[in-house]
Structure formats: structure tokens, C-alpha cells
């Protein structure tokens, strides 16, 4: 599995660097119009979506079909994608925290009261949206999978909205939402792994 993870990392390494540079330029501009901590969510989504590059390259190059001939379980291929998505998304969270904090200091907006909320939101969006986004790229064709990817993040936002309405806009609501989104992510990982063990990878 280590080899598969390294292969995926090198596939998106250059695109991640380009995305981060672009994000910093655009993020600095929009930070004058919104709370800087919003950049944490944006960074998380941008890096999380970079994993879609792996799927597109794997499909076009025929890698997915070739990889099933390797002496590894087909579920390991799925696990690598879920782990890589989690890894780059969490990098996005930490990068967003660092960058938004730096921006706050530059523009002298030192009100960090929103920081915990946006960290929670970023983590929730990562796992909730990932539980939808990743299966879409395996089970659907390229066009439909992209639609699924674009819909997954608004659905994540909708999930947070519903939870805050049911429980309230507080730490308890965010904590429960985080746990539920993580459970959903693990369930998605489990069932997709079981699916590809019994069926051909598209």
C-alpha cells in the first residue's frame, strides 16, 4: 500500500503546489472582504478536490484496470484513495489555519473567535463530502462523477445547517456533526471496499 500511496502523492504533488500558490494569491485578495478564517474552509476544499486529478489520470491511463493485476487486494486501492484524500484535506486545514492567521495579523484583524468554528466546519466538510465524492469517482462516469463532486460540498454545508437547527449553533452541535461525518466517511470507505472486491473497477 505504501507504493500506491507514493504513486498517488507524486501524481498530485505538482498540482497541490500550484493550487496552494493560486489559493494564497486569491485568498489574500478576498480576505479584505470576508472573515480571514473562511480561508480555512476554502483551502480544505481546494486541496481535497485535488484528489480528483488522481482519479481522472488513473482512468484515462488505464491504471485502475492494470492495478487489479497487482498482488494486492483491490480494497487496498480504495483505501489509498481515502487515505490520500484525508491526508491532503487535513493539510488544507492546517495550511488554512496558518495562512488565515498570517493574513489576520497583516490586516490587523486579531479577532480569532471564529477560528474554532471554521476548523470544525472544515473537518466536517472533509469527511461528509468525501463520503460522497470518492464513491462517485469509482461508480460513475467522468461527467457524472464531477457533478457528484460539485454537489458533495454543498450537501456537507446543508448537513451542518440542519444539525445547527436541530441542536443549536454551539460546540456540541459541531462535535456531534464531526463524529457523524467521520462515521459516514468510514462507512463509505468500508462499503466501497467491499463493492470493488466483488466487482470490476471501472
Automatic annotation (TrEMBL):
Question: TM spans, by residue?
Answer: 12-32, 38-57, 82-107, 119-140, 147-168, 174-192
Q: Keyword Transmembrane on this protein? A: yes
The question of whether Ribosomal protein is a record keyword is answered with no
Ordered alphabetically, the record's keywords are: Membrane, Transmembrane, Transmembrane helix
What is the name of this protein? ABC-2 transporter permease
Upper classification of the source organism reads: Bacteria, Bacillati, Bacillota, Clostridia, Eubacteriales
Amino acid at each position: 500500500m505504501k507504493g500506491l500511496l507514493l504513486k498517488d502523492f507524486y501524481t498530485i504533488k505538482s498540482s497541490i503546489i500550484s493550487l496552494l500558490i493560486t489559493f494564497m494569491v486569491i485568498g489574500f485578495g478576498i480576505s479584505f472582504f470576508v472573515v480571514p478564517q473562511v480561508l480555512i474552509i476554502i483551502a480544505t476544499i481546494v486541496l481535497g478536490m485535488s484528489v480528483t486529478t488522481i482519479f481522472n489520470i488513473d482512468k484515462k491511463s488505464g491504471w485502475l484496470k492494470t492495478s487489479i493485476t497487482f498482488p494486492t487486494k483491490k480494497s487496498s486501492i480504495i483505501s489509498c484513495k481515502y487515505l490520500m484524500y484525508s491526508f491532503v484535506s487535513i493539510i488544507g486545514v492546517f495550511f488554512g489555519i496558518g495562512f488565515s492567521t498570517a493574513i489576520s495579523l497583516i490586516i490587523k484583524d486579531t479577532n480569532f473567535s471564529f477560528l474554532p468554528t471554521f476548523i470544525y466546519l472544515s473537518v466536517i466538510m472533509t469527511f461528509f463530502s468525501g463520503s460522497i465524492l470518492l464513491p462517485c469517482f469509482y461508480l460513475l462516469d467522468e461527467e457524472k462523477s464531477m457533478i457528484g463532486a460539485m454537489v458533495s460540498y454543498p450537501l456537507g454545508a446543508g448537513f451542518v445547517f440542519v444539525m445547527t437547527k436541530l441542536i443549536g449553533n454551539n460546540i456540541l452541535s459541531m462535535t456531534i456533526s464531526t463524529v457523524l461525518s467521520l462515521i459516514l466517511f468510514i462507512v463509505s470507505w468500508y462499503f466501497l471496499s467491499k463493492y470493488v472486491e466483488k466487482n470490476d473497477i471501472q
